[in-house]
């Protein structure tokens, strides 16, 4: 036991690993406050056979960070860009190329890991709608009871350079009036998504019905949201989110693809018809130019032959 404790104590911290693995000035480097929270999350669990999913791979440094810090963990990364060369051939790391809202790819990630994840980290698009789509599938279906879901950099909702961001403004501090019923705050982008997570935590207390999002605890730090999944079973999925059986889903996907192809063919045929119409019009003009000079000869021919044509 003493030797084991000495090994754990001698193991490098996340900050030390980050210093070694990230390139100088790399903008995707995880903030020191994030690393401190991850050390808290993994405290006492570094040598467990954990399953980790990170949405957003970028340079691949965070994949190696988890691999080196968690020597028995299986790490899966998902990104829309190709796998970085630095990750090629590394054991315990699996990379999928897909959008973070690709449900089939998210399910494939869980299959690669061998089951539901212990920790899921969203460091991908930093857009509200994609963040929410990922969460609504991964949290109920792909995260273990008691697992942790981390949403990084939700402050992009305060950044106008993001499509769904808007610049920071103080909430109205003068609205604490007796007739006030709505207390407004910033709801743009990922900020709004994170704030929405407070509602399902209250659902059972208010309605008696457990939410399909079995959130035990929501911790909000500066630019970092940590969502703890309850060990208790979740409530039923809302009808709008109930997925059809795999075969039905595959058929629906094939039908959507076929419909899109038919529409594309219709557009192509319409373009060909329009082109033919233009060519016929051009030919009529050419024929008119050819026939017009022959009209006097046609009259002479009719006079000589007595024919009307």
What are the defining features of this structure?
309 residues; alpha/beta; Rossmann fold; 2 domains; 7-stranded mixed β-sheet; 10 helices; 7 strands; disordered N terminus
Q: Could you explain how this protein is built, in words?
A:
The protein is an alpha/beta fold. The chain folds into 2 domains: 2-243, Rossmann fold, CATH 3.40.50.150; 258-305. Helix content is 44%, strand content 15%. It has 10 helices and 7 strands. It has helices at 2-10, 14-21, 32-41, 61-69, 103-113, 128-141, 189-196, 198-207, 246-291, 295-305, and strands at residues 51-55, 74-79, 93-97, 117-122, 143-152, 215-221, 224-229. Strands 3-2-1-4-5-7-6 form a 7-stranded mixed β-sheet, with helices on both faces. β4, α6 and β5 form a beta-alpha-beta unit. α6 (128-141) runs parallel beside α7. The longest helix has 46 residues, at 246-291. It is elongated. The model is unreliable at 3-8 (pLDDT under 50).
Give the topology.
Layout (H helix, E strand, L loop, with lengths): L1 H9 L3 H8 L10 H10 L9 E5 L5 H9 L4 E6 L13 E5 L5 H11 L3 E6 L5 H14 L1 E10 L36 H8 L1 H10 L7 E7 L2 E6 L16 H46 L3 H11 L4
Parallel strand pairs: 1-2, 1-4, 2-3, 4-5
Antiparallel strand pairs: 5-7, 6-7
């Amino acid at each position: 036991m003493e030797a084991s404790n000495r090994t754990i104590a001698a193991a490098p911290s996340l900050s030390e690993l980050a210093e070694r693995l990230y390139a100088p000035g790399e903008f995707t480097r995880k903030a020191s406050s994030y690393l401190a929270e991850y050390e808290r999350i993994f405290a006492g669990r570094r040598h467990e056979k954990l399953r980790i999913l990170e949405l957003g791979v970028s340079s691949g440094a965070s994949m190696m960070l988890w691999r080196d810090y968690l020597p028995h963990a299986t790490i899966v990364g998902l990104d829309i860009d190709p796998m970085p060369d630095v990750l090629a051939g590394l054991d315990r790391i699996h990379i999928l190329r897909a959008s973070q809202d690709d449900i089939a790819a998210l399910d494939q990630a869980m299959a690669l890991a061998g089951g539901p994840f212990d920790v899921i980290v969203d460091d991908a698009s930093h857009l509200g709608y994609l963040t929410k789509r990922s969460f609504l599938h991964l949290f109920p279906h792909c995260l273990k009871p008691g697992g942790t879901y981390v949403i990084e950099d939700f402050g992009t909702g305060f950044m106008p350079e993001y499509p769904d961001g808007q610049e920071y403004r103080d909430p109205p501090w003068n609205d604490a009036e007796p007739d006030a019923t709505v207390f407004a705050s910033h709801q743009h982008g990922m900020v709004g998504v994170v704030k929405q997570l407070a509602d399902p935590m209250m659902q059972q207390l208010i309605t008696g019905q457990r939410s399909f999002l079995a959130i035990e605890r929501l911790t909000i730090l500066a630019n970092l949201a940590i969502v703890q999944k309850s060990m208790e079973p979740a409530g039923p999925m809302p009808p709008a989110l109930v997925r059809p059986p795999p075969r039905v889903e595959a058929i629906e996907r094939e039908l959507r693809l076929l419909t899109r192809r038919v529409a594309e063919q219709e557009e192509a045929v319409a373009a060909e018809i329009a082109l033919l119409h233009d060519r016929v019009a051009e030919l009529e003009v050419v024929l008119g130019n050819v026939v017009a000079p022959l009209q006097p000869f046609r009259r002479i021919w009719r006079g000589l032959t007595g024919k009307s044509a």
